[in-house]
C-alpha cells in the first residue's frame, strides 16, 4: 500500500516553498519558520492515517522520495521512529556543498531546517540509526554533489557501527544527473522488500508510470477553509506578550530571560572568544580643523573591518563651538549601512581620496560630517563598505541564505561586529587618542543593529536611533527572534541598559 503526499508548493492546494529564495520573506528566519517543518508535520500525520487503516501493518512502514521528497524522507525518518526503513534519494549532502560550493542556490527553503543548533547534515542522518537506511544518489547531481553525499554516508556509518548495525546502512550511487532513474527506483524497491517484508527476491516489474497526474487529483473544488496557502503565517507562533511585566522588578526578570533566550536561540553562533579584538591604526590625516584616523579591527576571521575616527582640532579660547564640545566630551559611535557608508565615504574622499577611489569627493558632506564639533567614530560591519559582498540581487539573496544554514543571519553577525567595535574602543582607545563615554547612533536598518548591540555592551551612555523599524517583521532578519521578543520590548530592555535612549528625537 502506498500513500503519496502532496507538497505545499506543488500540490493541489498551493503554498510557498520559496519565501527567502524568491519572495524576500526574510521574516521567516525571524519566526524560525521553514516549509520543511510543515512537510515533516504532514508526513507524521500521514503515518497517523496509515495506522488507522485495517490493511496496514503499523510495524512495517517505510518512506522514500527523491529531491524534495528525499528531504522529506530524511525529516520524517529522523523525527518519527514509526518509520522502519528509509530510502531518501537525492535529498541530503553536507554543509560544505551547500555553503562553500554554493549548492544553496539550487534549493528552495523546503530543503532546510532552521539550523538553530548549527548541525551539519550527518547529524540529521544519524537520527535514523539503527533503523534501515539507504542513502541513494546519482553521480552527476549538481545540487547534491557526490563528494558531499559520500561524506555524509561515511560519518553516519560510524554511528551504525556503534549500534552493531552496519548491514542496515547502505549507499547506492548510480550514473546520472539530478533525475529520477530506473536504477534508483529498483534498488529502493529491493530495500523496502528486504527490510519490511523479509523478501530478497528480484524485482520482476519495472518501475513504470501507472497513473497520469489528472488521475491523482482529489478535489473538484478547493476547500474554503484550507490553511496551506498561508501556513507560513500560523505554523510557528510569535512570542505571546499577554500580561506584559507591569513593575520594574518584573521587567528586570523578563529582560534577563529574554536576553538569555536571545543568546541561545538567536546569537548562539557568535564566536566564543572574549578577548578584545585586535585594533590597528592604518593611517592618519589632518584636514582643516579635523583629524581623521583610519583604523581596522578584527571582529571575526577573515574580516578586518574599518573603524574611522574624526576628531576636531580647535582652540577652545577662540571657538565657542569648541568650548561647548569641551563641556560635552562624549563620542558619537555611528553604525553605518551601505547607503550611509557611501555618503560618509564621499565626505572622507575629500581628505583621503586614495582610500575612497570609487567615491566622488563632496566638500559639503565633509562639512556636515565635521559640523557637530565633537569626535565621531564610524563603524562599518561586515557586508558594508570595503567588505560589501555583492551588488547582484541573486548573489546577495543566496549569501543571506547561507548564513541561516550556519545557524546565523547576516544581521546577527553585523550586530556582533558592532559589539566587537565597542569592545575594541573600550580596551584600546588610547591607540585612537579618544575615550568615551560613547553615544551609539544608527538610522534605519543600522538603528536596528545599534539597538541590539546596546544590549550586549556596558559602555554606552546614550542610544540615538532614527527611523527604527516598527517590528521584527520589517527589520533585518535574526534567527528565531520573533519567538522570543519584538522590537517594542527590545527598546524597553535598552532603557534598562543605557542611561538615555532617544528615538526620532524623543527621549524614552
Summarize the structure in words.
The chain has 508 residues and is α/β, with parallel strands linked by helices. It folds into two domains: 27-234, 3-Layer(aba) Sandwich (Rossmann fold), CATH 3.40.50; 279-507, Rossmann fold (3-Layer(aba) Sandwich). The chain has 16 helices and 13 strands. The protein has helices at residues 27-31, 35-51, 68-79, 95-100, 121-126, 146-163, 182-197, 231-234, 248-266, 320-327, 338-348, 363-370, 393-405, 410-428, 445-454, 487-497, and strands at 61-66, 83-89, 133-138, 169-174, 279-287, 290-300, 303-312, 331-335, 376-379, 438-443, 460-466, 500-503, 506-507. The chain is elongated. Mean pLDDT is 93; it is low at 315-320 and 322-327.
Keywords for this entry:
single chain, Rossmann fold, 16 helices, 16% strand, 2 domains, 4-stranded parallel beta sheet, 508 residues, 36% helix, 9-stranded mixed beta sheet, alpha/beta, elongated
Report the structural category: alpha/beta
CATH architecture of the largest domain: 3-Layer(aba) Sandwich
CATH topology name of the largest domain: Rossmann fold
Strand order within the widest sheet?
5-6-7-9-8-10-11-12-13
Round the mean pLDDT to the nearest integer and report it: 93
Overall number of structural domains? 2
Please write the string of helix (H) and strand (E) elements.
HHEHEHHEHEHHHEEEHEHHEHHEHEHEE
The tally of strands reads 13
Number of helical regions: 16
Largest sheet: 9 strands, mixed
Given this structure, which CATH class of the largest domain is correct?
A: Alpha Beta
Overall, the morphology is: elongated
How much of the sequence lies in strands comes to 15-25%
Termini separation:
64 Å
The helix fraction, in percent, is: 25-40%
Q: Radius of gyration over alpha carbons?
A: 28 Å
Pick out the low-confidence regions: 315-320, 322-327
